[in-house]
Structures are given as structure tokens and as C-alpha cells.
Fold these 2 entries.
Entry 1:
Amino acid sequence: MAPILWRFFWVGLTAFGAARWTNLEAAFVRTGLLREEDFFRDLAISQTLPGPAFVNLTALCGMRLGGLGLAAAAIAVVLLPGVVTIVAALAWLSTGDPWVARLFHGVLVGAVGVLAASLWRSARRLNGWFAASLAAATLLLVAIGVPMVAAVLGVGAIGVIRYRWTAQTLP
Amino acid sequence: MSVLDVALVFLRLGAVSFGGGTSVLAELQHELVDLRGALTQQQFLTAYALGQATPGPGVLFLVPMGFYAAGAPGAVVAVVAFLVPPLLLQIVVARQWERLSRSPWIRALDRTLVPISVGLIGASLHALGVPLLADARTLIAFVAAALISAIFRPTPGLIVLAAAVLGVAGVL
């Protein structure tokens, strides 16, 4: 179990930015520990259901490699490098040095820029006016202060009914 | 904010975090900053920056948010409450996936969740951007970071690192 957990730890240490799942693919699919079709099926599940896809996929990989116990341990070691870094950073921030504040301001500007680019790429993949309308309605409702759960349920119900009806009426 | 309140907020939002942790930032800001005053706007922004500047899942902004709201126990509870319910759901659904994915209702749900995720991430960008982009230099740096990321697609860490260096240098 230790070599597998070491691989998860390495994934947690080296995964940055978008498409972190590629680190898991490199660690377990390219090395032959997981079958490609199983991995991509789990990727689809992790991206469909709520929760961070990278953490969800880590759990599903752990389940396949060694059951529930390994899945729990895999999540712990994947989170460990980031948590340790954040605890250290929180202690560092508490010193109140002005340059530390400037550093995090810079990090934030860069991270929000990356988020905007990611949003742009995702929005371009929306298929048709109805999907774009669902996205716009969700954004607008949450931005004006409608509780997110209500917004997701309301917009979700409209989307599911429409897509289900469209599927039924296709020739 | 009590640890129980932290648990309830993060439990509720974790359960609807379609599109990942980033999708609930707008609601987290509303709950933790606007409604409860558990975090200042600056602490909220710093928490997101910390999550993006560290290795591993981007959702680690939960740690500083929980910490600022209720100390070290708050940090642990925020992470557990946010992550565990979706993880349990994954494990249950993964075992039934072959059967579920054939249902037309599930396929309709799958198609619906994509635009909802995009909308939620847009709302998160709005929540982060409004307080952050208050001056011309920050706005220019944000646009440059977004354009470079969209056009050249470098590793996001490089953009964050470059922006951090500009921040320390006092350019931003």
C-alpha cells in the first residue's frame, strides 16, 4: 500500500492549476495500475456529481486500487502538501509584513485572471442558446443574492425538463 | 461563528458544488462575509489566493476560510463537511453508474449541469472580481493574466507566480 500512497502524495504535491486529473492519469493509468476505460468512466462521474472533481476522482482511484480504506488514505495524502503549505502561509501572514500582503494581492490577481480564462473556455463549449441561457440565468440569480441552492434547483428543473422533452421528440 | 455553524454552511454548499469548489465562492462570500461577518472581504480574498497558490486541489481555500471563521477546529470541520457528502455520493453512484447513465432523465440532468456549472463559476468570478478590481493597475494586470491564460494556455501556476512577483515588486 505504501508505494501507492506515495504516488498519491506525489500527485498532491505536483498538481497545480486546471486539469489536475492529468496528474492522476499519469500516476495510475500510464503506469498500468488502472485501466484507461475505468479511469475515464470515473472521471465522468467525478465531473458530473457535486464536489471538487480532483478530490472525487482521487477517491474513486483509491477505491479501485484498494477499497474504502485506501480511498480515505489517498484523499488524506493528496490534501497533505497543500494543507501544510497553507498552515505555514497562515502563520506567515499573521506577521503582518506589508510585502506579504502585496504577494497575496498579486497571487489573487493572477488566480482570478486564470479563472476568467477558464470560464471563457467553458462558456465557448456551451451548446446552443438554451444552454447559454441556463448559464446566464444561474449567474444572474446567484449574483443578485438568490440562495445558490434555490438557483440551482430552479434552473436545473427547467433544464432537465427541457432536455428530457427534447430527447423524447427527436426523430 | 460557531463550529456547528461552519459545519452547516459548508455541508450545505458542498452538497450543491456542481462544477467543483470554485462554483460556490459567490455563495460562500454571501454567507461568510455579507450575512454572518465571520470573515472580512480581505480575508475571503486571501483565502482564495492561498488555495490557488498551493499544490493539490484548488478547493483548499476551505482551510483558511474555516480557520478565519472558527479557528483550527473550523478549518478541519470546513474541509470535512464540504468534502465528505459528495464523496459518499460518488462511491454510491459509481457502483450504479452503468444503469444510471442509461436513464434519459440522468442524461438530461447531465446536460443541464454543464451550463449550471458555467453560471456558478461566472458568479464566483463576479464575487471575487468586484472587490478586487478596484483600481486601474489591478484591472490591467487581471486582463493581461486572463488573455495570456486564454491565448497561450501556460501552466496556471506560472501566471500566478508572475503576478505574485509583480505584487511583491509593488507594481500591482
Entry 2:
Amino acid sequence: MNIWEIIIISLIKILIIVVLMLLSVAYLVYFERKISAWVQNRVGPNRVGWLGLLQPFADVFKLLLKEDIVPDAANKPLHTLAPFIALFVSFATYAVIPIGPPIEVFGYKINLVVADVNIGVLYVFALTSLGVYGITFAGWSSGSKYSLLGGIRSSAQMISYEVSMGFSIAGVLLMSQSLSPMKIVESQYGWMWNAIVQPIGFITFVVSAFAETNRLPFDLPEAEPELVGGYHTEYSSFKFAGFFLAEYANMIIASGMIVTLYLGGWQVPYIDKLGLSTTLTTIIQVAAFLFKMGALLFFFIWVRWSIPRFRYDQLMNLGWKVMFPLALANLIWVALLIMIFNL
Amino acid sequence: MPSKKREKDLNIFEKLYIPEIAKGMALTLKNMFRPNVTLQYPEVKFEPPASYRGRPVLVQENNGVERCVACGLCSRVCPALAIEVQASETDLEKERYPVKFEINMLRCIFCGFCEEVCPEEAIVMSKDYELVFKNRKDAIFGKDKLLVPIENLKDRLEFLRKFK
């Protein structure tokens, strides 16, 4: 393939992914409102369009047309920059998550991932660490005490849980011997999904993912009764929409990572024994990936409306005194497995 | 009566709170499949029970005459000073009738004192809760907007007889 073909194929992939991400984020907001309504015995949005399906467009229009207020004491460049850092991080991370196995289209062999780098997992971690900057800038540059407190708490929380996230991933890396997401998915053949082989690591990673995305039960930095909105108190109109979308995009990224690292990515157990044609297999595998991600997103939303919020000291306690030792124990467990079974 | 477990009595599995979390999540999941209780207003309107205190209305008997004798008690007892009555003579048996009876709905607080004090059961709180005006003058309801035939107010009158 010459350079033009590579560029055009990548551009097409980028376009598809960006459009899908934007739509998914908008509809994730809609589904959160619907599912939270069902949990609470009510109906949720059902007026805008059939069954309320056009509600995200109404929401986005409303947010775009609002007045943009910047407080006097704010540091204007940082105040404007912060939501864009958050958005950039969320969208850029999706470039390395594989949706399906490599396919053959019109004679070109393409991978169903925008950028097949062989340090994909490290790239994801680098970007989530950058995401902390977005929140810190937002909290500090707003010039208000609630924002500052919210921003500091949120950054400390995200940094603490990144430690246990990293150690859980180290367990996965020991099993798959590669940082590339494609190879990690390929190493989980049959029933050997990482969630079953390393259950403690799975639990630690899921809990850390909840904390990273500032989702209940770890959402003290942005909880309304506690901090009037935390780091995004002083934001209005498009910048608030930026943070809002970035939070849901982070949720999608976290689900994508959990599926890729622990739930076998696009693998469906024993599908090659059925002897179907390759296109059908690929379609089933892509559908399986999307279904797993959808199930995880439903789990995120379900947990949000079921569990009370952690207090800040309980949160930090959990991150350092419980999750971190568990992640280390998981590492020892995986090492033992590899030693015993000579994997 | 079994005493509640104290924190030091929890076993190791319960200390992780996993059973409690699982029970909570099962409850939310169960609630998703229960029917919802939302009324699709304005297609379906809420029908209040007989004891509901909606807007005050004048009772109109079957021959088209109001029951009110313009004694002025409701206007005197109204805490918000929303009612204005002007009496005049009539040849009917009741001898008095209100030539002008106005309630300013912007002042009315829907307390029901006028209904309680009326000696003729002539003013009652109806079930109507939808009041919309476009300017302040429209909010002063005269006799034309306040008269309601007695057929529509039967359950309220029965409620008053039984309980008040």
C-alpha cells in the first residue's frame, strides 16, 4: 500500500470513529436519563421525537445557545483551555481500541482500529494522566473556592486510582506479553478471558475505572449537594457542554478499555468451531464487542443509581489502602499462574 | 426483637459490603421492570379527589340563580382580601343577591375559609387547578367565570356535609 492509500484509509477510519463517538456520547446522555427514570419508576424524556430519541439534539442546542459567562477573577486562557484538554483526551484515547479482527476489504488488509501502535496501553495511560490536567486547570482557573476544592479533590482522586489501575494492567501484560491492544485481545482465546483468569485484577480495574471517570460512587468532586458542581461550577454554554461530553466520553473509553483488557475484546468463545464464513464471523465479533461495551455502560449507569457516594477520606482510604494492595496481590497471583502452568 | 448488628460483629464478607451492594443493585434492577407512575400531562389530566381545594366557585342552582345572598362574610374572612361583594335587592324569596361578585385570583391563596364561613353553602372550592391569564385584568374573575352549575359540584357538597 502506498502512502496515499494509507492516508485515505486512516482518514475514513478517523471520520467514522469521531462521528460514532459524538453520537454515542450524546445518546449515552439520553440513555442515562431513560435508565435512571426506569429505576425510579418514571418515564424519562419522551416528548422530543419518537420516544424522546431527539432529546440529545435539543440538549446540545440549548447548551450552545446559552450565554458564555466567565468570572472576573478567572484566568481566561486556562479557563478556556481546560474543557478542550478534557475533550481532546477523551476523543484521542479511542484511537487505539480495536473493534474487531483484521478484515479484507477490496483487497486491502485493514485493522479495525484507527492506530495500531504496539504501545497502545501505554498511550492510553499517558492520555488519562493528561486528563487530570484538564480538571486541575478548570478548578484552579475559575477563581472560586468551590471550583478549587472540587478540582483539587478530583485530581487527587484520579491520580490515586491511576496507581492501582496501572498495577492491574501489569497483571494483564504479564499474561499477554505485549502492550498492543490487538495482541492482548488475541491472547484471550476460548474461555481464557482475563476477567476469569485474574478476577481480583478485574475488580480492581473496574473500581479504578469508576474513580477515574468521576462516576458515582466516587463522584464527590462534582456532586451537587456537596460542592455545587465542583470543578465545573463556573462554566456555562459550550465549555460546560465540553466537560459534560468529556465525562461521558471518558465513560465510553473506560468501558472500551475494560472490554479490551479483561472481557476478551471482540472474541466470542469457540466461534470458529461453527464454521461460518469470514465476513459473518467478523460481523458477529464486532457486534459482540459493541454488545459488551453496551452492557458495561449499562452497568456504569446502574451502579450510579444504586449506591451511595463515598466520603472523600473513605475514597482515598479505599484507593491507597485497599485497591493498591489488592492490585499487588493480583500481580503475585498472575506470576504464580504463569510459573505453574508455564504459560 | 433481634438487635441490630454492630460494626464489630460483621463477618469479613459483610465488611466488604458486597452483599449490601448486591442487594441494592438487585433492588434497582427489580424496579426497572415495575410499571411507572408517570401521568402523561397534558394528554391525561390529574383528577383530584373530592377533598381537593381548587379554585373557589359560586354554586348555581338548577333554575339559573346563584345561592349567594351577598352577606359579605366570605369577603370579611378572606385572609388575602381577594373577594369583593356588592349586594342589591331582589324579588326572590332570598331577598338579597350579589350584583357584583369578584374574586381576584392573583390574591386568592386557596385556603378555603370563604367556603367554611358561608352560611348558604354558596361558594365552594372546586377541583379546577388550571388557571392561566395573560394580563392582570383577566385575573379578576367576575360572576360569569365563577358560576358553576350544582351538578358539577355534587361530590364537593357531599364531602362538606360529611366532614365539615
